[in-house]
């Protein structure tokens, strides 16, 4: 197998993912038949390029996960890789309290009668795709506080809350991958998390 020698297409420095992704998409507009891989290394955003049409070898580290694979419509493919901690095994997860804290005591929100979760519970995502947000709020700029997108079945631990926002209850969670943020329990479309 012929392996294309990888080359560093330039460190973007210590910038946000949004800046790195925007830079990569801008560069893709000027090329064709190129595979772009964008990832973080010691706080710096690295972009690598490979030419499509010849075999190549790409190896990810144990804690690197493909966040998205997108076709830009011009024959280019952009792969975004994010660093995550290894999944937590059920045995290594925090022990569940023997008695549930009364986190809902004195709490009120429009969806109170639909709540099934409390702090300390383990749960899982029960909807095709759910946004994990840094705060229990959907801002005017819809994408501004999204930490990551969670797939159906991802395991969670409820670590905080509840908070009422947008007429619904939000819980602070930690995912099986170590990501932390806020997820709403229920919307008009149904439950986003289940015990």
Q: How much strand?
A: 35-45%
Query: What is the correct CATH architecture of the largest domain?
Result: Roll
> Within the largest sheet, what's the order of strands?
1-3-2-5-4
The low-confidence runs, each spanning 5 or more residues with pLDDT under 50, are: 1-8, 88-103
In the CATH hierarchy, what is the superfamily of the largest domain?
SH3 Domains
Class from secondary-structure proportions: mainly beta
Number of helices: 1
In total, how many beta strands? 14
Main sheet properties: 5 strands, mixed
Q: According to CATH, what is the class of the largest domain?
A: Mainly Beta
CATH topology of the largest domain: SH3 type barrels
Percentage of residues in helical conformation: under 10%
Quick take:
Helix content is 6%, strand content 41%.
Structure characterization notes:
The chain is 6% helix and 41% strand. It is mostly beta strands. It has 2 domains: 8-83, no CATH class; 112-194, Roll (SH3 type barrels), CATH 2.30.30.40. A hairpin with a 5-residue loop joins strand 4 (64-71) and strand 5 (77-83). The protein is elongated and about 60 Å long. Mean pLDDT is 79; it is low at 1-8 and 88-103.
Strand-helix topology:
Blueprint: E1 8-11, H1 17-28, E2 34-41, E3 44-51, E4 64-71, E5 77-83, E6 122-125, E7 129-133, E8 146-151, E9 155-165, E10 168-175, E11 180-184, E12 186-187, E13 190-191, E14 193-194
Parallel strand pairs: 2-5
Antiparallel strand pairs: 1-3, 2-3, 4-5, 6-9, 6-14, 7-8, 9-10, 10-11, 12-13
